[in-house]
Design brief:
435 residues; alpha+beta; 5-stranded antiparallel β-sheet; 14 helices; 20% strand
Length: 435
């Protein structure tokens, strides 16, 4: 099976190069890839030779790769069926072929792939014959270890090329997993058999063909939404969001309210991907969560990072707790009544916020306040509230997107120190004037 995957990987990458237009105008013969050359490297190098120039591009990638090169007209048959390098990663060789393509294109892409197999065989100078009409020219069937006289070599109900490109199963073994017929198996574990997914023109190698957040099997069997359309009812809210928020993905109006005008209260929790830059990778002594009333799923539109403002990172950093929070949104994000919450680490509270009190007697998390970080120099305090039992400091966002958590005891010390230093400076200036 490894050689089969290596073989089709090489052809797939040649195909992708052609689709990108990099071989346009190439009048030379092209070496056909073999399944035997399977080294492992981490960079993709594609060399394209045309009649006028040679271009080499290199990029770091986790995907499989191949190098295609021109061969002369007297190249031997053995050399014609070889390539400089093929790198195989079983789990994603077909992903790149179908990356960012909708399910509607799936079968069209397979047909295009068939045409390209013919094209590269023609360029190699070999005869283009496909005896069994399975889409794999006979000259390549030997490399694929399939029967050139049978469209379905192993008799499992799936044509050989479909197995190699779509289901990623072994076209020479009717039960790739050793248990289930490949047509009846569920390669992507989405609850639909391979043969049913192919009949529905959805990907048997991707559990969520339309990338709407719903498993293809759930779309077909549970929600009855279209697994080829991310927004079945056309209301601008994708099916996965509607299922999550409780609106009807089959109708643009739910309970008399248009879904694209329905503000729904929701929380972006601490473990959300939208907050990973602050909560997972940040080194602040708190975890952030957000609350919104929003149209659609707020977590799809929000990305939170640490603050880049100089007040937080430079001249006020001695009084700012943690790295600050900067909230970005994209697309047509509609929201109101946003709340930002900082849950302070208990050890930090005990070690850093106990003992020294503010003038009003407050200590613990009440030493902290949330400040807006405006575009100009400085910080502006906003109304801050406290949930002492859970160690949470929170505030209404009111359209603000950049926040800092400030220890007001340290801030007061800084102000006093600055005032004392200023007074000393003025006193010295007076003495200098008198003398």
């Amino acid at each position: 099976m490894k050689k089969l995957i290596a073989f089709i990987t090489a052809l797939t990458m040649v195909f992708m190069t052609a689709c990108s237009g990099s071989t346009e105008g190439d009048s030379s013969k092209t070496a056909l890839p073999t399944a035997d050359d399977t080294s492992s490297v981490s960079e993709t190098t594609t060399t394209t030779t045309t009649s006028s120039m040679t271009t080499t591009t290199t990029q770091t990638t986790a995907y499989p790769q191949t190098t295609t090169s021109a061969v002369t007209s007297d190249t031997s048959a053995a050399d014609t069926l070889s390539s400089n390098s093929v790198t195989v990663k079983k789990s994603d060789y077909a992903d790149r072929l179908f990356a960012e393509r909708s399910g509607n294109d799936l079968m069209d892409t397979l047909e295009l792939f068939k045409k390209y197999l013919i094209e590269i065989v023609e360029k190699s100078g070999k005869p283009v014959t496909d005896t069994d009409k399975d889409g794999i020219p006979d000259v390549l069937e030997a490399q694929a270890q399939t029967d050139p006289e049978k469209a379905d070599t192993d008799g499992d109900g799936l044509d050989d090329l479909v197995e190699l490109v779509l289901t990623r199963t072994d076209p020479t073994n009717p039960m790739t997993d050793g248990k289930t017929n490949d047509a009846k198996a569920d390669s992507d574990k989405d609850g639909l058999s391979n043969e049913r997914e192919i009949a529905l023109k959805i990907s048997p190698a991707n559990p969520d063909t339309d990338s709407d957040g719903l498993n293809d099997g759930d779309e077909v069997n549970k929600y009855h939404t279209d697994p080829l359309k991310s927004d079945t009812d056309g209301d601008t809210i994708n099916d996965g969001d509607e299922a999550e928020l409780g609106t009807d993905p089959l109708h643009p109006v739910t309970n008399g309210i248009a879904d694209n005008k329905h503000y729904i209260k929701q929380t972006i929790p601490e473990d959300s991907e939208a907050l990973r830059m602050v909560n997972k990778f940040g080194e602040s002594p708190y975890k952030v969560s957000l609350e919104y009333e929003a149209v659609g799923s707020a977590k799809r539109y929000i990305l939170v990072s640490t603050s880049r403002h100089a007040a937080v990172t430079n001249y006020m950093k001695d009084v700012v707790v943690g790295s600050g929070v900067e909230i970005s949104s994209y697309g047509d994000f509609k929201s109101k009544n946003g709340v930002i919450k900082f849950r302070i680490d208990k050890d930090y509270i005990n070690k850093n916020l106990k003992g020294k009190k503010l003038a009003n007697g407050a200590d613990g998390i009440k030493r902290l306040a949330i400040y807006a970080v405006p575009d100009y120099i400085g910080l502006e305090r906003i109304k801050t509230q406290y949930d002492e039992a859970n160690g949470i400091v929170y505030a209404q966002m009111n359209g603000i997107t950049d926040f800092a958590l400030v220890d007001e005891y340290l801030y007061a010390e800084r102000i006093v120190k600055s005032a004392e230093e200023y007074q000393k400076y003025m006193d010295q200036q007076k003495k200098n004037t008198v003398s």
